[in-house]
Structure formats: structure tokens, C-alpha cells
Amino acid sequence: MIDFEQQKPLIFPLEKAANQGIYFDIQGKTNYIGQARQAISIKKHPVSFAQYQQSFERVQQQLQQGNSYLLNLTYPTEITGNIDLESLFNQAVAPYKLWLKINLFAFRRNVLSIFKTTKFSLIP
């Protein structure tokens, strides 16, 4: 695994991933033994509708002017709740999941979602 800045690569055989604090579930192939599911409560704190609408209208103008054929408009959304990253990894239903004990959790359905301790990102 290579980080975006290519400064802290992690290279080792998959069977040693758990020893490095890296857990995965890739279409059912996993190195993680799940825990019992718990009831969760998550609250999201997105940007205001007015802020998103303003950006959406700007994107629409640019698309109509032919300045892009593909665009992904996203904003960071803070989430709070009674769940830690390990429990989130355990309870996520997705064909591709990754959890690094250094406070990173990701799962993939049709976009890559990355949760850090205080940040959430969507990457197509």
C-alpha cells in the first residue's frame, strides 16, 4: 500500500497484514475475525443546503459551457456517534473493506469512502 504522498509505503505479504495492524475484507477474503454487531447511532453534520446549492449551480454552469464531462461535487461531512473505527469496519456491508489501526477505515461500493478520526472523504 502506498500513501498519496508516497512517503510511507507499506509493503509486506497479505498474511502479515494483521501483524502490521491492517485488516481487510475483499469480496469475502478476510484476515479479520468479526465481533458481535452492536446498535449504532451516527449523526452527520453536512454543509448547509444553501452552500451546496451554490456550488451545484456553479458546476451546472461549467458543464453547460463544456468545461468538463465528468465532475464529482463533494464536501467533507463530520460524523459523530457511539461507534469506533473497528466496529464501523465490522458492521459495514461492502465488497471491499480496509481498516488500518492508525485511525483509517475505508470501504468501497461505487466510490471509495475514507474515514479518518475527524475527516471523511469520497474518492471516485
Q: Beta-sheet strand percentage?
A: 25-35%
Distance between the termini: 18 Å
The succession of helices and strands, N to C, reads EEEHEHEEEE
Given the structure, what is the number of helices?
A: 2
Average pLDDT rating = 80
The parts where pLDDT drops under 50 for at least 5 residues are none
Largest sheet: 6 strands, antiparallel
The beta-strand count equals 8
What level of helicity do the residues show? 10-25%
Going by helix content, strand content and strand pairing, the class is: alpha+beta
Strand order of the largest sheet: 2-1-5-6-7-8
> For the CA atoms, what is the radius of gyration?
18 Å
Approximate shape: extended
Overall number of structural domains: 2
